[in-house]
C-alpha cells in the first residue's frame, strides 16, 4: 500500500475539498447513509515461545474480536458493515495481497477497508497494527500501532473497545 507523504499545495487542497463535497460518500452522509466499511480477518503471529499451545484460543479470540469490531463500529451509526467475498479463514493480509483485499472491498461496495495484524511477542505483551484504507484512492486514512497486555478474553475485549474508540474519535477530527 502506498501512503501519501507530500503536503498538497493550497490549490490542490481546494480542489480536493470541492471534489470531496461533491462525492457520493459525502452525499450519502448528507442523506443519512453512512459509508460502508469492510473488515478483513486479522492476521496473527505468536513468537512468544510459550510452552502451552494457545492457537485455538487465539483463533477464537480473533474471530470474536473481528465480530465485535464490526458490531461496535456499525452501532455508532458512522459506518455500515461490508462483507468481503473470501473463503473462511483466508481473508487477512497474511492470506491475500492488500491490493486483492482492496479489490474485494470495492466489489463489496465498501468505501473503506480495515486491515489488521496482531503479534504476540511475550507471555503478556501483544501488538495490534490497525489500518483503514480508503478503497477508491488506496490511501491509508487511519493507522495505529497499539500494545495490549494480557492474553485472555478480558484483555482482548479491552483492546477491541480501545481500538473502536480510537477509530471513532479519529472520524470526528
Description:
The protein is α/β, with parallel strands linked by helices and 173 residues long. It is 41% helix and 24% strand. The protein has five helices and six strands. Mean pLDDT is 84; it is low at 1-30.
Task: Please give a quick description of this structure.
By secondary structure, the chain is α/β, with parallel strands linked by helices. Helix 3 runs parallel beside helix 5.
Topology:
Elements: H1 10-22, H2 24-30, E1 36-39, E2 43-46, H3 55-75, E3 80-82, H4 98-107, E4 112-120, E5 125-134, E6 139-149, H5 153-172
Parallel strand pairs: 1-3, 1-4, 2-4
Antiparallel strand pairs: 4-5, 5-6
Ends: how far apart? Answer: 23 Å
How would a crystallographer describe the biggest sheet?
Answer: 6 strands, mixed
| Number of helices, where a helix is a run of at least 4 consecutive DSSP H or I residues | 5
Unreliable segments (pLDDT under 50, ≥5 consecutive)? 1-30
CA-based gyration radius: 17 Å
Tertiary shape? globular
Q: Name the structural class.
A: alpha/beta
Overall pLDDT metric? 84
* Order of secondary-structure elements: HHEEHEHEEEH
Would you report the number of β strands? 6
Helix content: 40-55%
Strand fraction: 15-25%
Amino acid at each position: 500500500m502506498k501512503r501519501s507523504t507530500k503536503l498538497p499545495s493550497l490549490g490542490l487542497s481546494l480542489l480536493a475539498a470541492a471534489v470531496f463535497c461533491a462525492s457520493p460518500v459525502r452525499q450519502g452522509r448528507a442523506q443519512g447513509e453512512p459509508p460502508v466499511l469492510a473488515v478483513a480477518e486479522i492476521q496473527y503471529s505468536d513468537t512468544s515461545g510459550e510452552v502451552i499451545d494457545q492457537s485455538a484460543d487465539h483463533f477464537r479470540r480473533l474471530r470474536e474480536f473481528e465480530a465485535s469490531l464490526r458490531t461496535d463500529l456499525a452501532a455508532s451509526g458512522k459506518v455500515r458493515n461490508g462483507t468481503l467475498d473470501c473463503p473462511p479463514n483466508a481473508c487477512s493480509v497474511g492470506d491475500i495481497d492488500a491490493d486483492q483485499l482492496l479489490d474485494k472491498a470495492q466489489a463489496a461496495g465498501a468505501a473503506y477497508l480495515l486491515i489488521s495484524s496482531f503479534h504476540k511477542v511475550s507471555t503478556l505483551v501483544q501488538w495490534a497494527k490497525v489500518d483503514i484504507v480508503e478503497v477508491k484512492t488506496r490511501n491509508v486514512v487511519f493507522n495505529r500501532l497499539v500494545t495490549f497486555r494480557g492474553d485472555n478474553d478480558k484483555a482482548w475485549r479491552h483492546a477491541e473497545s480501545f481500538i473502536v474508540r480510537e477509530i471513532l474519535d479519529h472520524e470526528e477530527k
